[in-house]
Write a structure and sequence with these properties.
It is built from 14 helices and seven strands. It is α/β, with parallel strands linked by helices. The N and C termini lie far apart (about 60 Å).
Length: about 375
């Protein structure tokens, strides 16, 4: 594809796109070999995120969970990136990448258990909701502190290289706000110097909570920031899932060959609020948001393309959404019925071997009278 044959500066300032907003192909020849099964899976995975987010926001508003951060409008950036990964790869997410974990095999039950903070939660109820983790699928728990996960991703990739694990890649995610933190620059410097096998992916949704992109940086694009650290840079339309898949796969293939790190900017838009605690109408023009919610919607775009190729029929989206909605509701019913973690788990996973003080505290807890929590309706 011509975009990947351009020089570094042109790629960092350009915008790779395969499908236009109306669903027509930019380069039909480049898409000729697209696997229909993959295209269908990408579509269903995006719809799953949309459906799950809607149910979770409803639960939060009903007081059944404490917090949630949606990914509405960013599904293509998430799913396209996930599809470019392999089972042996590691994922270090930011706030809105739970869909990457789900695509790679994390179950809905595990995801919802973490949101409820119940006894089935892998982190034993210790994390704010939206902090899932999945050891079996190499999905690391995300950090609430902006950008601290980027050096972790580079460090994991450096460890892979030191261990001689050729073919493995670490995918590290961040938002546009993350590129304004010192951790970003530290991480890119190490990634460039060490030629670490990592793909650093920025979901540029144009808003770091209430801070717009133009207040954060005077750079023409975020992708060009990779050049100063000797890192290859790509910039793709983050609402075009096929462009995201090809761009991130190109970066991952470079890393697998031993050609070093790539910084990928995915241009998208945060259609929803930053989180369930935010009201974006207080700081941005929501008429702009409606354009991204409507004509630039990534699910609508892929749907139109698949229908045109005969791989999806009119009405299929509603059928798929209803099936996924039922799966989400069933998982909610199961996980909402799971009791909270036992108090004794407070002492688990603190040290590999409990210290004398921890053993003493555990014994004190075991001897203390228990107070039954009031029944909740």
């Amino acid at each position: 594809m011509e975009y990947f044959d351009a020089d570094d500066d042109a790629r960092a300032r350009g915008l790779f796109q395969l499908v236009r907003e109306d669903g027509t192909p930019v380069d039909a020849e480049a898409l000729a070999g697209l696997d229909p099964a993959l295209a269908r899976r990408l579509f269903e995975a995006m719809v799953q995120i949309r459906v799950t987010d809607a149910r979770m926001m409803a639960l939060q508003r009903q007081g059944r969970i404490g917090f949630y951060g949606e990914a509405v409008g960013q599904e293509a950036a998430i799913v396209g990136s996930a599809a470019a990964s392999e089972p042996q790869d590691w994922i270090v997410p930011a706030l809105r990448e739970a869909g990457v974990g789900l695509y790679r095999g994390m179950t809905l039950d595990s995801y919802l258990a973490q949101i409820f903070g119940n006894a089935a939660d892998p982190s034993k109820g210790r994390q704010l909701p939206c902090h899932p983790c999945d050891r079996a699928h190499h999905y690391v728990v995300m950090s609430s502190c902006v950008s601290t996960q980027i050096p972790h991703a580079v460090g994991i990739a450096m460890a892979m290289k030191i261990a001689g694990d050729r073919g493995k890649v670490c995918f590290g995610f961040m938002g546009d706000g993350g590129t304004s933190e010192p951790d970003f620059h530290v991480a890119l410097n190490f990634a460039g110097v060490s030629r670490a096998p990592c793909v650093l992916i920025c979901q540029n949704n144009q808003w770091a909570i209430s801070t717009p992109g133009h207040v954060q940086t005077a750079a023409e694009s975020l992708a060009i920031k990779g050049a100063g650290y000797g890192i290859a840079a790509l910039r793709a339309d983050g609402n075009d899932v096929l462009a995201v898949y090809h761009a991130v796969k190109h970066a991952a293939d470079r890393a697998r060959r031993g050609d070093g790190a790539t910084f990928v900017e995915l241009l998208t838009y945060r259609v929803s609020a930053h989180s369930s605690s935010d009201d974006p109408s207080r700081y941005r023009d929501e008429s702009v948001t409606e354009v991204w919610r409507g004509t630039r919607d990534p699910i609508r775009r892929l749907e139109a393309y698949l229908i045109a190729r005969g791989w999806l029929a009119a009405g299929d989206r509603e059928t798929i959404a209803q099936r996924l909605e039922a799966e989400v509701r069933d998982a909610i019913a199961r996980q909402e019925a799971v009791p909270p973690p036992a108090l004794e788990t407070l002492f688990d996973d603190v040290y590999e071997h409990p210290t004398p003080r921890l053993r003493e505290q555990r014994a004190e807890l075991a001897a203390a009278p228990r107070v039954r929590a009031p029944h909740q309706h």
